[in-house]
Amino acid sequence: MTSNKTIVNSWNEWDPLKHIIVGRADGTMVQAPEPAAERDWPEHGFPLGTYGLLPEEMEVRANEQLDNFVKILESRGVRVDRPTPVDFSQPVQTPDWKQGSMFGCMPPRDLLLTVGNEMIEATMSYRSRWFEYLCYRPLLEQYFKDDPNFRWEAAPKPRLSDRTYKKDWNIKFNALSKEEQEQTARDEDFITTEVEPCFDAADIGRAGKDLFIYRTATTNRAGVDWLTRHFSNHRIHMVRFLEPAGSHIDASLTLLRPGLALSSYERVPLEPRMKELFKKNDWEIVDCAEPSADGYAPLSFCSRWLSMNTLMLDEKTVCVDAKEVKQMEQLDSLGFEVIPVPFSDVNAFGGGLHCATADVYREGSCQDYFPKQIQGY
Length: 377
Description:
CATH topology: L-arginine/glycine Amidinotransferase, Chain A
CATH superfamily: L-arginine/glycine Amidinotransferase, Chain A
Order of helices and strands: EEEHEEEHEEHEHHEEHEEEHEEEHEE
Structural class: alpha/beta
CATH architecture: 5-stranded Propeller
Shape: globular
Distance between the termini: 37 Å
CATH class: Alpha Beta
Helix content: 10-25%
Number of strands: 19
Radius of gyration: 19 Å
Oligomer: single chain
C-alpha cells in the first residue's frame, strides 16, 4: 500500500497484514441483565442483577496494553485504526425491548467480518451489543469514501424480542451437571431460538474459499443459513465443539497458516467430518499448549482458552499473549517467530489478541486451501 487511502481486502487469517482495527477499553460495562447474558460476580462487586462500569484502574491498565499492542503492530509496518467509543452506560431500547446498558468496543472481531473486499456488520445476539456498530461507523464511512471497490454490508438486524430466546434457559442450564451441560452442546440446545438469523462475526474462521462457522450460543442455524446464502461463492462448513453455552471460534480452532491449525484439547470437535476434511487436505490440527490460567479472569466472561487467541502477522509471525509461555514455546517449535504481547489486563474487556482486532487489509487473494471436499460437509 503506497498511500493513506484505504483498501479493504482480507481472505484468511495469515496473509501479510497491512491494516487492522484495534479496539478500545473506554467505558466498558459489566452489562445490565438480559436474556442472553446475566453476570454473577459477587466476589468482584457485581452480584446477579447488578451492572456498571468496569473499575477505572482496570480500564487504564487495559488501554495501556492496547496502546502498546498498537505500537508493536505499527513497528511492524501495520496501519492501525481505532473505534470511537460511545456512552456504553446509557440504557438503550427498540420497539421490542429496553436494555439497562450497552457493553463496550474492545473486541471489534465480534462485530466485523472481512471477506475479500467486503466488511459485514454482524447481527449480534446480545441486546447490550445491538448498537455496538455505531463505534465503527466513522471508520467504515471513511473506507467507503476511500475504496471504490469496498462492499459495506450490514446483516439484517434481529429484533431480539423474547421470541429469540428460550425462556428461563439460563436457570435450567445452571442447574445441570457438567455432563448434562456438555450434552446441551451435542444437542445444540443453546439459548437462542431459530426465529431469526443471529451470528457474531467471531464465530467465523476464514480460509480463502472455505468459511468455518461455529454453531454456538451466539450463532444459530438461521445465522449459518444467512451466511451460506450471502457467501454463495464460498464453501460453508458448520462446525460444533463440545463447549456448553460457548461462543467464538478463535478460542476453539485457530487457523495459523496453510496446513496447520491449533485446537483446544478440551473443546473437542463434535463433527468427525471436520477432522476428515482437514486430514484429506493435508492439514494438521495440533492441540494447543496448556493455558497459564486455571479459569476465568476476574470480571471476565472469556475462558482460559484465550491462550490460543493469537494474531497472525503473516505465515511465519504470530502475536501471543506474553503470559502464555507454554503457548509461545509451542508455536516457536512449530517454526513461527513469536511476538510476546502483554495483554492479560485486556481479557476482562472482551477477549484476547484476535478478539481485539478486525482485519482491513492483508496482501493476497482468494485461494483454495481445501480442494478435496467431503461429501455432505
